[in-house]
Amino acid sequence: MEDREGGELPAPAEAEKRSWLAGEVAQWQKEGLIRDDQARLILARYGLAAAGTAASLGHRRIAQALALLGAILVGVGVILVVGANWESVPRLLRLLLLMALIALFYASGFVLAHSRRSHPAIGRALILLGSLIWGASIFLVAQSYHVGAEGGERSAILLWFLGVLPFVYILRSPEHAALAVILLWFWYGWTLGDHPARFGTSPPYLLLVTIAGAALYSAGWLHRLREELAPVGGVFLYAGLLATLGGIYGLSFDIYRSNSYETSSGPDVFLWGLAIATLAAGFALSAAVWMVSRRRGGADRWESVTVAGVVMAGTVCFIAAATSTSLEGVRIPAIIVANVVLLALESGLVALGWHRMRPDLVNLGLAAFFIHLMTRYFDLIGTMLSGGFAFITAGLVLLGAGALLERQRRRLLETMAGRAVK
Amino acid sequence: MKTWFTVIAAAQILFLGAQAAYYEHWKATGQTIEIRVAPTDPRSLFLGNYLLLSYDISRPPRQGLPPGSVRFDRLPDGTRIFVELEPRKGGAIITGLYTRRPDPPAKGRVYLQGRKVFDRINYGLERYYIPEARSEAASKLQAALAQTKQAPVITVEVAVSRSGQGMIRRVLVDGKPLDF
């Protein structure tokens, strides 16, 4: 009996052996003996995962990226062409045209990616294209009836998200997960930012983004526990991580000084409802992560404690900030705490990447640290220098710090690679 | 997987049909009311690919409303408002403001839903989309409007659904429908 990559296993008890191997590989990954890509290659060798050699894996990724790029370009093109000539086509015909296009892309994509599996990358890109055109169609139909102002566009984005979400799970598609996350963040940010009833100051908004990010990170973490949902979980995890870092980064600025929204009459039921839903999601998901990680121990436990800590501290700060009209009194401590927390998260991310042999986490942590460092430099020192001198000094600092950080990053990754070989 | 994929894909496609059918029904059966576009600055009407519209009824009167009406300036931002309108030649006028939809309005009057945004009411009727292919015609009309000695009367014919939501049926310039 030979698998798809040529690895051989004796026929008797084959299923049992494969199951044993899958369990062992998962354990090796957990213990940091092998990296994710190595685990995929081992599993692929015995037909337990869809992956090839390192070279074919690279080619496949390029093909996937090209197909996705193509899908996005075609999608944008179709939307622009249809949008531009919208009124010159009879209303019913243009609706039928859009419906037919979506059906065509979905059907052909599904056949290529899932039925015949002859061109999975192109097939998945076509399905994504169908979803992009579907979303754009909601806007085009509404636009042709002049409906869409006063929150209508936001509702359309939410509808688009709700329509796309089932595909994340049915197809286990990371592309759809990315689309869903983008739509959800877009809707969330827009709704928070555009709602006429407002909190008295801006920190509550950034705290909500931070907590929502932690909730999404937790959701991603939980998804990754199931092998078939791991790619989707990865997307949620990164999106959550970026939002959390972004939220705390925003809080590290001097935004506590004045009451920005003096004309507002304060938050209403809707805004409080959205905030409470965010906090509830943060608590529920981070608690679930904490409970699971207690059984697993090690770095997982520290990770879950950090996520739960972000949610709990964020909630306390949110309640305090949302119910205050001025934060002038806590301005300096708040800026210091936000910077310290951000620094701790950046260091934690590098440490987690190092422990799990994940260069992507190390890179993300270092990139966040670099941006943070440069921002504080411009805030504190850059403003003291005048004119061109400030630019020259800033440029030199940027080059020096960048080179230093890059050298350290490479060293770290080389050491990680050395650890993996041993 | 195939079954669920087909179900969701079909639901998405049918949704578009339902969306269009809903709007069509609303447009055809909605109660008609004409509201006047506020003559603030006609030159700025044609922004991008849509007309940015503001109405006389966007700013409610401070006085003269019946006793049951709410005080607009005391409402928090974002509050949903039902505006009672009385049709008049050249544009409807506000005859009442309510935060909950009251009993059916007096004969001939219409409730239009809006939301308080600072000192004005947004009705969701603030945009009239212009197809890209007609943008040149729109520019010509804009230039013609700017040259007229007397400011034209611009009104909007609105189809109001049972729930009080409005949809622009057409835009009228001095009583003539805008051909976009």
Molecular structure report:
The complex is a heterodimer of chains A (422) and B (180). Chain A is built from 14 helices and no strands. In chain A, α12 packs antiparallel against α13 (359-380) and α13 (359-380) packs antiparallel against α14. Chain A has 422 residues and is mainly α. Helices cover 23% and strands 31% of the residues of chain B. Chains A and B meet through α4, α5 and α6 of A and α1, β6 and β8 of B.
* Average predicted local confidence, pLDDT of chain B: 82
Radius of gyration of chain A over alpha carbons?
A: 25 Å
Q: What value does the Rg of chain B take, in angstroms?
A: 19 Å
Q: What share of the residues of chain B lie within helices? A: 10-25%
Number of helices of chain A: 14
The greatest interface between two protein chains, and residues involved on each side, is:
A-B, 50 and 43 residues
**How many helices of chain B?**
2
Q: Major sheet of chain B: size, sense and barrel closure?
A: 4 strands, antiparallel
Strand element count of chain B: 11
Shape of chain A: globular
| Secondary-structure-derived class of chain B | alpha+beta
